[in-house]
């Protein structure tokens, strides 16, 4: 392999692959400073801001075959240590005003969506397009105005400001991109000049590994979502090479646990195919996840977790899958599986059980008292907060310990509160 360099050489770059496609593939790993398309050779040269970002990208793609628009591309370090000719600078210098802004959000206390950004930036002029992405430096967005003076005005007014009190601080500079390309209208990208774009690529998200062991990384439904979620790397302790989809859970409290409660807990880490409580060992259960990566997340984050007074033992099963039958519960088609939509966001929220739970899809008129009444049977509540995000009511509830929070989650996720089916996950916030 060539000596490490911040310049990455990409091969098999077909004519259908745009500069924006390459940017989206590599943005999770760090700031891209230059990009040169070698169209005659079907190649590209891409310069990261530093060598470590390039190393992270190449390490990630040793396990994951990078594909763009269905075409495999091949990457290696370039023999160049620096691109010195007159290539374009991607992320710009502040002294060159442009109608496209590069926005970095620091101290992200709450998730930021395209709708939130549009609300913040549209008072300064017509926003044509927004593209968001997650990288090791944090959450970033490119915002394209119809006219350059609007972008300049927004930058002057919003630089250094917080979107929410005490958090989500904006760091804004001009980008040197000439035009943003938006393929989908969803939470991550939006073209306000073309409302008819699809929300996702049709056929892009198969259910990987359902019913078979398979191989972990190549079958993963959405490798770019994983890269985006974890800033181009993987969480500490996660290898990404596991190919076993089925998990054996033991030391369960047989009086309190059923398949749906296990579903509510394990579905935080991936889609659930099937769950089976073992008749001959009542405190044991098998949980089949959507793929090996999701199974690895569940084993890593739930090993040793406390639930209903018992410390869970969570390991890979010798069984590659759970045979469908009357003694197993099937969840393949459940609309409660979280990873069919917003996969990157759900991967990003994966963590071990915490003392704090996050409740969403609440009724618009919900009160703090109603939220407390709904979950207080599960433990001592230290603090609660009901707030609005993108026009939707959400809440945080802090319990005395992780076990109480886990009990509230497994018992009350997907239950009805005021006529709404609520969603619950663990929050990584330390305090409210």
TrEMBL record:
GO terms for cellular component: nucleus. GO terms for molecular function: mRNA binding. GO terms for biological process: regulation of RNA splicing. Keywords: Repeat, RNA-binding. The keyword Magnesium does not apply. The keyword Transferase does not apply. Residues 6-80, 245-319, 355-429 form the RRM domain. Pfam families: RRM_1 (PF00076), RRM_5 (PF13893), RRM_8 (PF11835). This is RRM domain-containing protein. It comes from Brassica campestris (Field mustard).
């Amino acid at each position: 392999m060539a000596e490490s360099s911040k310049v990455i050489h990409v091969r098999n770059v077909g004519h259908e692959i745009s500069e924006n496609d390459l940017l989206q593939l590599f943005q999770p790993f760090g700031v891209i400073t230059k990009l040169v398309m070698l169209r005659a050779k079907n190649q590209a040269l891409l310069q990261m801001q530093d060598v470590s970002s390039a190393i992270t990208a190449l390490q990630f793609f040793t396990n994951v075959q990078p594909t763009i628009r269905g075409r495999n591309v091949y990457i290696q370090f370039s023999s160049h240590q620096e691109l010195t000719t007159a290539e374009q600078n991607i992320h710009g210098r502040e002294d060159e005003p442009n109608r496209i802004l590069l926005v970095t959000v620091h101290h992200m206390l709450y998730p930021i969506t395209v709708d939130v950004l549009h609300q913040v930036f549209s008072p300064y002029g017509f926003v044509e397009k927004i593209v968001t992405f997650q990288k090791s430096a944090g959450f970033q967005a490119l915002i394209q105005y119809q006219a350059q003076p609007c972008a300049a005005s927004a930058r002057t007014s919003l630089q250094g400001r917080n979107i929410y009190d005490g958090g989500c601080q904006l760091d804004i500079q001009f980008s040197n991109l000439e035009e943003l390309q938006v393929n989908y209208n969803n939470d991550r990208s939006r073209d306000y000049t073309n409302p008819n774009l699809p929300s996702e690529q049709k056929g892009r998200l198969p259910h990987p590994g359902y019913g078979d062991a398979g191989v972990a990384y190549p079958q993963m439904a959405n490798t770019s979502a994983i890269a985006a979620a974890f800033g181009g790397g993987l969480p500490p302790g996660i290898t990404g090479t596991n190919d076993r989809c089925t998990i054996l859970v033991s030391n369960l409290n047989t009086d309190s646990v059923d398949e749906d409660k296990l579903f509510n807990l394990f579905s935080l880490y991936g889609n659930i195919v099937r769950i089976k409580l073992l008749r001959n060992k009542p405190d044991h259960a098998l949980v089949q996840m959507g793929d090996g990566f999701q199974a690895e997340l569940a084993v890593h984050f739930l090993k040793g977790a406390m639930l209903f007074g018992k410390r869970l033992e969570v390991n890979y099963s010798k069984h590659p899958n759970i045979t469908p039958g009357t003694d197993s519960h099937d969840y393949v088609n459940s609309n409660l599986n979280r990873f069919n939509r917003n996969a990157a966001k759900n991967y990003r929220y994966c963590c071990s059980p915490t003392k704090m739970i996050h409740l969403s899809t609440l009724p618009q008129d919900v009160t703090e008292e109603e939220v407390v009444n709904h979950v207080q049977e599960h433990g001592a509540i230290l603090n609660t907060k009901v707030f609005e995000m993108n026009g939707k009511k959400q809440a945080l509830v802090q319990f005395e310990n992780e076990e109480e929070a886990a009990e509230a989650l497994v018992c009350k996720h997907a239950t009805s509160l005021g006529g709404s089916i609520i969603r619950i996950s663990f929050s990584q916030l330390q305090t409210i």
